[in-house]
Design a protein that fits this description.
The chain is α/β, with parallel strands linked by helices. It has helices at about 5-25, 60-75, 90-95, 145-155, 190-195, 210-215, 230-235; strands at about 30, 35-40, 40-45, 50-55, 80-85, 100-105, 115, 130-135, 155-165, 170, 175, 180, 200-205, 215-220, 250-255. The chain is built from seven helices and 15 strands. The chain starts with a helix and ends with a strand. The mean pLDDT is about 90. Bound molecules: zinc ion (ZN). Zinc ion (ZN) binds near residues 31, 33, 36 and 54.
Length: about 260
């Protein structure tokens, strides 16, 4: 993003975060990550879906979901080695608040995390981490099966890997029964047309769970969003409202060693 665009975005965010709520006193929406309250989150995404991005902390629907899930489920009474891929800023901040967490973020791009790592060829020893958090990464990775095996390799016997990807039941009016991938499509524009984003290499279907199991994981799906009240889901705007939205967006895939 150019500097001029960054300045425009930042000033728009500041206006939406602090000025707009002064004039519009509705406080129906709130961010569980940073406490911001206002009439609505900002539109976000290629389709500019409404009520999505927090103007104060930049959280999106799924980040708020992960935040609430981890807050409820992460043990605070034992030492945890946490490995976080392609770190979302607000989730990094969350992990770093815990005194019992030894935290490491990694990314293929060294500017985006604490350490550079290739998810298909990790530098860590076997069974190093208690918690692995990897969201919206595998849809970018051609050999995702190898990446899954690597995630399992570095997980401790009692550890858990949260592995999340966008899953679609249909795309452009066509039902997605099975994960769709075609490695002959390499042009970014063609990928955007085929997979919904220029840097995606597939569209996952609900057989994502089986792919994780083929890699050796035992997978349980926590339909977390369904355990919350409608009021909470609406107040925190947890489910995206756009044509790509899917029931599975509210599910957490918990993967353990067999
Ligand atoms: Zn926020």
């Amino acid at each position: 993003m150019k500097l001029k665009d960054k300045i425009i975005k930042k000033s728009d965010d500041l206006y939406q975060a602090y000025v707009y709520p002064v004039f519009n006193r509705k406080r129906t929406i709130s961010c569980p990550c940073c406490g911001w309250q206002g009439p609505a989150f900002l539109p976000h995404g290629l389709e500019k879906r409404p009520n999505s991005r927090c103007p104060k902390c930049d959280s999106l629907e799924r980040f708020r979901l992960y935040y609430l899930y981890l807050k409820k489920n992460l043990p605070t009474d034992k030492q945890l080695n946490v490995l976080h891929f392609a770190p979302e800023k607000i989730i990094t901040k969350f992990f770093k608040k815990y005194a019992n967490i030894d935290y490491l973020s990694v990314d293929l791009n060294p500017a985006k995390a604490m350490q550079q790592e290739d998810i298909t060829q990790l530098s860590f020893k076997d069974q190093t981490f208690d918690v692995v958090f990897c969201s919206h990464v595998l849809e970018h990775i051609p050999d995702d099966r190898k990446a899954m095996r690597e995630l399992m390799r570095v997980l401790k016997p009692a550890g858990v890997a949260y592995i999340l990807v966008p899953i679609m039941d249909s795309y452009k009016g066509k039902t997605i029964d099975k994960t769709y991938e075609d490695f002959s499509i390499t042009d970014p524009q063609e990928r955007e047309s085929a997979f919904g984003q220029h840097d995606h290499v597939r569209i996952y279907g609900r057989d994502f769970k089986e792919r994780l199991e083929e890699a050796g994981f035992v997978v349980t799906i926590d339909k977390f969003v369904e355990s919350l009240s409608t009021d909470q889901a609406e107040r925190f705007a947890l489910m995206p409202k756009n044509s790509f939205a899917n029931e599975t967006d509210g599910w957490i895939y918990c993967c353990r060693r067999s």
